[in-house]
Amino acid sequence: MIPQLNEKEQQILTRLVRDPNLSVTDLARELDVSSVTMRGYLNGLAEKGYLYRVRGGAIPTIHPEIVEREQTHQQEKRAIAQYAASLVQDGDTIMIEAGTTTAMVARYLLGKRDVSIVTNNALAMAHARGNPGLRVNLVGGEYRPANESIVGPLALSILDQFHVKIAFVGTDGFSIRSGLSTHLVEGAEIVRRMAAQADRVVVLADSSKWNHTGFVHVLPLTSIDTIVTDVGIADDAAAEIAEAGVDTVQVEPN
After folding, report:
1. Which of 15, 136, 168, 183 has a C-alpha 20 to 30 A away from that of 150?
2. Is the pLDDT of residue 148 over 60?
């Protein structure tokens, strides 16, 4: 789920992302609530920063690509993020790279104490801001709304100032031949820098990304310590990854 939204709010935002011309009346009819109730939902979403109100309706502020990615393989992503969070102990230092799955790691750190996070993931902030046990360092740089990330030379230079125990990173595809890959040059630079500044690199990737290759090569699998994925990945694929010297963890969807 997108941070801080209940099921009804999620449904409203999804519909508005698909069609920002929907009116209050249209939304109320589709979701079987009164227009008064719908206005209350829209006002609440506006206060949280997910949309701004216009006469008779609302315009979403979140990028459609984020909503689309957030709604794919939801159960697998939650299970992967929850396992990743279990690797973090009180007092640890970690990095969290941009992505919908990596963002959820912060959500499952509730109850951990004195954990320091360095991140370029704006979505992670929404999960982390209410947790008093976390100290969050959000890097500066150029904001990219399509993936809620902060990238560029400034972000890279700031990452150079930190050293952490674990870097949690995502990928658009992973395979034996191509390693990790992504569609964005700036994203690849961030992952490489985080990997260089961490004792352990943990990749969070659902099984749909296996044997997919993005536009930009990021890292070979030999540069990765652990891949956390789901049970949808084939046994022979898991064996290939293990042969490359990478620890593979397959989690059951919640």
Report:
1. 15
2. yes
Three-class DSSP category at 240: helix
Q: What does the pLDDT average to over 70-93?
A: 92
DSSP state of 50: S
DSSP state for residue 216 in the 8-state scheme: E
User: For residues 203 and 174, is the Cβ–Cβ distance under 8 A?
Assistant: yes
CA dihedral (16, 63, 174, 254) positive or negative? negative
d(CA 91, CA 144): 30
Mean pLDDT, residues 30-41: 95
| 149-158, Cβ contacts within 8 angstroms, sequence gap of 24 or more | 149/98, 149/120, 149/121, 149/122, 149/186, 149/187, 149/190, 150/98, 150/120, 150/121, 150/122, 151/98, 151/120, 151/184, 151/186, 151/187, 151/189, 151/190, 152/186, 155/120, 155/190, 156/189, 156/190, 156/193
What residue ranges define each of the domains in the chain, with the CATH number in brackets?
7-62 (1.10.10.10), 70-251 (3.40.50.1360)
Whether the predicted pLDDT of 119 surpasses 60: yes
pLDDT value of residue 41: 94
pTM above 0.90, yes or no: no
Helices then strands, each counted (H, E), the chain: 10, 14
Q: What is the mean pLDDT of residues 161-181?
A: 96
- Per-residue tokens: 206: 């659902």
In contact, 168 and 199? CB cutoff 8 Å: no
Higher pLDDT, 65 or 211: 211
134-127-218 Cα angle (round to 5): 90
Q: Which residues lie closer than 8 Å to 98 by C-beta, 6 or more apart?
A: 120, 121, 122, 123, 147, 148, 149, 150, 151, 170, 187, 190
